[in-house]
Design a protein that fits this description.
Among the domains are: about 180 residues, FAD/NAD(P)-binding domain; about 140 residues, 3-Layer(bba) Sandwich (FAD/NAD(P)-binding domain). Helix 1 runs parallel beside helix 2 and helix 1 packs parallel to helix 7. The relative contact order is 0.15. The strands form 4 sheets. Strands 1, 2, 3, 4, 5, 6, 19 and 20 form an 8-stranded mixed beta sheet that branches. Strands 8-18-9-10-14 form a 5-stranded parallel beta sheet, with helices on one face. It has a 4-stranded mixed beta sheet with strand order 7-15-16-17, with no helix packed on it. It is an alpha/beta fold. Helices cover about 35% and strands about 20% of the residues. The structure holds flavin-adenine dinucleotide. The site of flavin-adenine dinucleotide has 32 residues, from helix 1, strand 4 and helix 7.
Length: about 450
Amino acid sequence: MPTQHLDTDYLLIGAGAMSMGFADVILSEDPTARIVMVDRHANPGGHWNDAYPFVRLHQPAAFYGLHSTSLGRGGEDLSSGANLVAYYRDAMDAFVRTGRVTFLPMSEYEGDGRITSIVDAGQVTTVTARRRVVDGTYSHVLVPSICPPRYEVDPGVTLVPPNELARIRRPWERYVIVGAGKTGIDSILFLLDNGVAPERIQWIMPNDAWLLDRGAMQPDLVLDTVVAMVQSIADAAGIQDAFLDLERQGIVFRLDEDSLPHKWRCATVDRRELAQLRRLEDIVRLGRVQQIGRDEIRLDEGTIDAVPDMLVVDCSANGLAKRDPVPLFAPGRVTLQPVFMCQQTFSAALIAHLELLDLTDEHRNRICTPVPHPEHVLDLASALVTTTRNMLNCNRHMALWLRRTRLFLGHHAPAHRYLLGSGKLAMVQRRATASMQRMQRAEPAAGAAERREAVGAGA
Ligand SMILES: Cc1cc2nc3c(=O)[nH]c(=O)nc-3n(C[C@H](O)[C@H](O)[C@H](O)COP(=O)(O)OP(=O)(O)OC[C@H]3O[C@@H](n4cnc5c(N)ncnc54)[C@H](O)[C@@H]3O)c2cc1C
């Protein structure tokens, strides 16, 4: 097969939710722009293509997806993985119909504008991007179905990714869920909601995390929630004081009220789900799994008995690991990263809008700086302080655009509450920054140790 060459304005590596969000704004706000998108998957939507069949958004669809196209039924609706794959497929079809987008699925980007087909080694495409190469792979989302466990599994042990749970054809004596993140939580809820007795479920939980209450993330409340969080950081003597204050306000909660979690990953559940999770008694807090055998499970801090008839569900992939930030804009390059805590699709749309403003890259990078996905409790403070700074800066440069995009949490607040909320953020920002710096000085060792502990906690 011959090599083809394409000239374009933007070459987007990846067609996940962030690349799609970037392309959507570029196409609608610059009628001349041409785009080439490349992805290993057959369909756009990134990790949603690999997710387990019972996955749903964990925050409302009202502020997820594309700037141009609504998603879900509004209010508290959480789109399913299948809805999301169809949504992005339809969006890509619409992009291609403009005649300005070329999508290269089942293809690997190898660097330097070179793309090879995954299904035919002879097919090579080279691309020259006149404006930018846009890296939409930075999030590096890992889901268990494509990521083997990092612990040993003896022969004879049945270990599956959560994708297989919906295909179980017989009852198991014990279900062992490995991983404390949202995927582990979803797997447990799936089993409980399908009538498995809580006594049959063993949850291996390397770390406890603070959880976000979905009730506080509803579209009409979410801006007030962000303001309350920043206010808590400003007022608290230490990071755990801030979390405890937010717990009192009904914004976060923890599974075990007798201990303080050390992780914060924005995992979002509602009160019914929390009550379900609290039905479990067999929760193993002995660190990460090292080896699973037929008779015993070896962990960092001890060994527990196994039963012969157990189904191990591996949810240990760190779906959205915290990564070091890089500049959003560099000559010829954009790297898509969150610029608002845990709001990836909004961030991608915002970065595209910034790209089209008549500014230097230095200026763009001053308006918005990346907000790495949080992992340790201390990250809440820095993520909120940077989010607030970005939001206030954007209000100066693109106030109308911000207020109008449904992807922005503030869009959903009535005008008077929006103005009040923005005003409060402007007033509290300095104190929050000073408080964050005090917290970081007081707990540098804890933060560094947790950051080194990169894997094994689950998505
Ligand atoms: C289970 C789960 C639930 C979530 N729920 C929510 C939610 O409710 N609300 C919310 O705001 N966020 C949520 N998130 C977070 C958010 O949706 C994701 O972080 C976001 O979708 C990430 O998209 P992405 O485009 O950055 O990455 P990805 O989805 O990983 O897309 C990257 C794409 O790049 C492709 N790629 C990588 N390297 C190459 C290469 N060399 N060549 C070709 N292609 C390449 C990959 O195949 C992939 O398709 C959730 C995340 C997970 C894992």
